User: Fold this.
Amino acid sequence: MSVLIFAELDEGKLKGSSKEAIYYGSKVAESLGTAATAIVIGQADSAELAAAGRFGAAKVLHAADSKLTEANGMAYASVVAAAAEQEGSTVVVLAKSSLGDAMAARLAGKLRAGLAANVVDLPNLSNGFRVKRSIYTGKAFAETELTADKKILAIKKNTITPEEKEATANVEAFSPALNDSDFVLKVTNTEKATGDVLLPEANLVVSAGRGLKGPENWGIVEDLAKALGAATACSKPVSDLDWRPHHEHVGQTGIKISPNLYIAAGISGAIQHLAGVNSSKVIVVINKDPEAPFFKSADYGIVGDVFDILPRLTKAVKAL
Amino acid sequence: MKILVCVTSVPDTTTKITFTDNNTRFNKAGVQFITGPYDDYALARAVELKEKLGGTVTVLNVGSADSDPVIRKCLAIGADDAIRVDAEPTDAFFVAEQIAAIAKQNSYDLILMGRESIDYNGGQVHGIVGELLGMPSISPVMQLDIDGSTAKLTREIEGGKQELEAQLPLILGCQEPIAEWKIPNMRGIMTARTKPLNVIPPAGNDTLTQVVGYELPPARGSVKMIPAEEAETLIRLLRTEAKVI
Ligand SMILES: Cc1cc2nc3c(=O)[nH]c(=O)nc-3n(C[C@H](O)[C@H](O)[C@H](O)COP(=O)(O)OP(=O)(O)OC[C@H]3O[C@@H](n4cnc5c(N)ncnc54)[C@H](O)[C@@H]3O)c2cc1C
Ligand SMILES: Cc1cc2nc3c(=O)[nH]c(=O)nc-3n(C[C@H](O)[C@H](O)[C@H](O)COP(=O)(O)OP(=O)(O)OC[C@H]3O[C@@H](n4cnc5c(N)ncnc54)[C@H](O)[C@@H]3O)c2cc1C
Assistant:
């Protein structure tokens, strides 16, 4: 009856958020007196899979059917359900992500499992099975009791910091029967930025708003991001105006992030913007208007012109 | 084209969230309720598709009579009729079962939802309904066109987007820029008053989760301002004080 963790790959490597999920799952397993098993779907080499042991997985089930190469929430949910059945798992853990969301929702339907999304702490087992999840887009938390036998926990980025140990997981091939009905979507084109830090995965984020005046000025944002090894993000008007792609838009109607550092340049700090970024650990605001509302939600602030400040920060980072 | 649009009634995005009754109840006092912003995108695209291809748009909410103003607004924007399942929707699985029960009685070509509710941010109801109906679900969808019985759509993926083709019927979780939000006009508001809003009892009451209490996040400490002339010190502070780089 191990705790099962759905661990995602990005280009053959375990995603950082999934390493957090494995570690979180191993902690849950510890409190339940059982072991943690990770299920990994797609192509990855055996060393990468065994490395799940560093984060606390005793075993890795690897589903490598070539039909599963393309990320597919419906098919992945069927595979995870089969793994949960084989392992007798009643608790499934995953990292909140685009693919994870799609998989978890279908899995909840299949297993009639209670699904808590955006979990921000380890479960409290002293009185039933309770988790704390972030609600109202980061504006509050709800203590939630999972009353069903089966439970799915989708954890928010930065909920837990894995402590790595010297261990490798036992890797077992896993080949459940696949259902044709899970393969009815035809992908005709995929566009994905390569080589960049994925925004939902990033520990450091440099974000900019309408204060940048136009897409031609994003060089100074990208330079600072590159120097820091950070991902870039933007406000909603910036993606609405097509200055930046939609997948960089953070906030109430965009991506919700919780990195260690969020630097906001030329963003006023509207409540809908804050909703998506307020669980960042440290927030830096750079704005030429000392009255910009964002300063009230910041840890560090600089009143200044982004065109002057950003290049100087980049230089200072390079000099570290 | 028969389209079902599922909408939530949620606190306006500018709401300051507070709780009452020893942090066990959301404080509705003075709160303005709106259609979920993602649900608004779904509705706007549904109305556009109806105008282009003909057919009907039905709006569905699982909620109390408090949702009625939000439902009327959806009718004013262009939905033809509405169903409200009269129940307190405190659990996503419960909501999904209600939607699935209605979908089973009416064969919709498209079931459009928002990518996620902005109160509980679950992002799960579309997938659960898909599983209960044995129907594909796709989210978050940024573009949608219908060609005969084929849907051509674009969904967002991390760091990019993906174009897909699928056969109807489908369940989609929508987000921008699938359509522009619509504002009801005077004529819409007048006709909405006479459009049917059918209130029905819930089917079953399976819930798999239960909220036992709420909490507000701790306030952030006060901001440390750094003079523009000394901007470079920020980087040192991020390393030595905040320890994030
Ligand atoms: C339902 C709903 C959902 C929404 N969802 C989102 C969302 O998900 N994400 C989001 O971001 N917004 C969202 N919004 C929009 C939000 O209300 C704001 O309009 C938006 O965040 C403003 O973007 P901005 O800060 O880039 O632009 P502005 O508000 O125009 O701010 C630009 C800032 O740049 C500063 N500035 C200008 N020039 C310089 C310079 N040279 N140097 C330094 N600073 C400079 C200005 O002082 C100003 O503070 C939503 C709104 C609604 C109604
Ligand atoms: C204590 C409490 C009080 C609540 N009060 C209300 C209320 O007064 N009115 C209200 O409408 N909801 C209310 N909700 C329910 C909440 O809005 C959601 O409907 C439900 O909890 C599912 O949340 P989710 O974040 O998992 O949905 P998600 O999976 O994020 O929702 C995805 C999409 O599913 C559809 N959907 C979700 N919920 C509903 C619904 N209830 N009816 C129709 N379509 C839906 C929408 O298209 C939505 O965009 C309450 C929830 C709790 C816990």
